[in-house]
Design goal:
The protein is of the alpha/beta class. The protein has a single domain, classed as Ribokinase (UDP-N-acetylmuramoyl-L-alanine:D-glutamate ligase, 3-Layer(aba) Sandwich). Helices cover about 35% and strands about 25% of the residues. Strands 5-4-1-8-9-10-11-12-13 form a 9-stranded mixed sheet, sandwiched between helices. It has a 4-stranded mixed sheet with strand order 3-2-6-7. The protein is globular, with a radius of gyration of 18 Å.
Length: about 300
C-alpha cells in the first residue's frame, strides 16, 4: 500500500502562445479547471497504474475541494483521510501553458497549509501500514518531517519529491530513502551548480553525504540520473512531442512508488516511470494527462504511433 501525504489544488490553466515575461501581458486562448496539486497528482498517478493508494491532505469546505476529492475517488484513491477545513479555501495553482509545452505555475496553498503535525499523528497507523510513503513540499515542513519519521520508524520505503525546493532538515534527509529533485531543485538543495552531468553527480553526492539514501534527478527532455553512493547512471528520455509538462514529474513519482510497492528494483522502477512520464507530457492538464496501466503496458506500440 502507498500513503501519499501532500497537497491538493485546483489547477486554473490558461493556454497561451508564450509564457509571459515580467511585466508582460499576453492573450490566452482557452481556460480550464483541472484537478491538481503535487500530492493529488501523484496519488492519482499511482492509483491509475493499479496502486493501492491512500491520500492524506486538506481541502477547503468549498466546491473545489469536493470536486478534488470526487476526482481522486474516481481514479481509485482512498480519500477518507483528506480533511475538509472550514474558514479557508481549497488550494489553487494558476498555470500558463505555452505552445512549447513549457509552463509557469503560481500556487496559492490555501487549505494545504492547514495540514498539521496533529493530522500526521492521527494518521500514524495508516503511514505505518504503508509499504511506501510518498510526499512533497507543498505542505508545512513539520508535517513532511513527521510523516517521513513515522514511515522510517515502521521500516517502510520513503520517497520525497522536494518541490517547491526548500532547505531540508537533517531529520528529513536521514528519513528520505529516495529524493527526486529536478536540476533547479537540486541546485537549491545542494548549493552546487547542476548544469552538467558531472556537476549533477557532485551535487547529488553532497546530499547523500548529508543523509539522503539515493537520488533520482529528473532532467526533463534529457531523461533522469540515478545517483547512489556507488555511482550514477543516466536514463535517456523518450522522444515525444510535449504538449503540456505540468504533471510529468508527478506521474514519474507516482509510477516510481507503485513499482517499489510491488517489490521491483529501483532500476526497473525508473525504466517504467520514464515511460509514464513520456506519455503524460503528450496530453493537456495534470490529472487528466495521467496514463492508465493498460496504456503503459502498450507503450511500445504507442511510441511507434507518435
Amino acid at each position: 500500500m502507498i500513503a501519499v501525504v501532500g497537497s491538493l489544488n485546483m489547477d486554473l490553466v490558461v493556454s497561451t502562445p508564450n509564457i509571459p515575461r515580467p511585466g508582460e501581458t499576453v492573450m490566452g486562448r482557452d481556460f480550464k479547471q483541472v484537478p491538481g496539486g503535487k500530492g493529488g497528482n501523484q496519488a492519482a498517478a499511482a492509483a491509475k497504474l493499479g496502486g493501492d493508494v491512500k491520500m492524506i491532505g486538506c481541502v477547503g469546505e468549498d466546491d473545489m475541494g469536493r470536486v478534488l476529492k470526487a476526482s481522486l475517488e474516481r481514479d481509485g484513491v482512498d480519500v477518507r483521510t483528506v480533511r475538509e477545513v472550514s474558514g479557508t479555501s481549497t488550494g489553487i495553482a494558476a498555470i500558463a501553458v505555452g505552445d512549447s509545452g513549457d509552463n509557469s505555475i503560481t500556487v496559492a496553498p490555501g487549505a494545504n497549509y492547514s495540514l498539521t503535525a496533529g493530522d500526521i499523528e492521527a494518521s500514524r497507523g495508516l503511514i505505518a501500514e504503508a509499504d511506501v510513503l510518498l510526499t512533497q513540499l507543498e505542505i508545512p515542513m513539520q508535517a513532511v518531517e513527521k510523516a517521513l519519521r513515522f514511515a522510517k520508524e515502521a521500516g517502510n520505503m520513503t520517497i520525497l519529491n522536494p518541490a517547491p525546493a526548500s532547505a531540508l532538515s537533517v531529520e528529513i534527509m536521514k528519513c528520505t530513502d529516495i529524493l527526486t529533485p529536478n536540476e533547479t531543485e537540486l541546485e537549491i538543495l545542494s548549493g552546487c551548480p547542476a548544469d552538467t552531468e558531472e556537476n549533477i553527480r557532485e551535487a547529488g553526492r553532497k546530499l547523500i553525504f548529508a543523509g539522503v539514501g539515493e537520488l533520482i534527478v529528473t532532467l526533463g527532455g534529457s531523461g533522469c540520473m540515478h545517483i547512489t553512493r556507488d555511482g550514477a547512471r543516466h536514463y535517456p528520455a523518450y522522444e515525444v512531442t510535449a504538449v503540456d509538462t505540468t504533471a510529468a514529474g508527478d506521474s514519474f513519482n507516482g509510477a516510481l512508488a507503485v513499482c517499489l510497492d510491488r517489490g521491483m528494483s529501483v532500476e526497473d522502477a525508473i525504466a517504467f516511470a520514464m515511460k509514464v512520464g513520456a506519455m503524460t507530457v503528450t496530453k493537456e492538464g495534470a490529472q487528466t494527462s495521467l496514463p492508465a496501466l493498460a496504456e503503459v503496458e502498450a507503450f511500445e506500440q504507442w511510441l511507434c504511433s507518435q
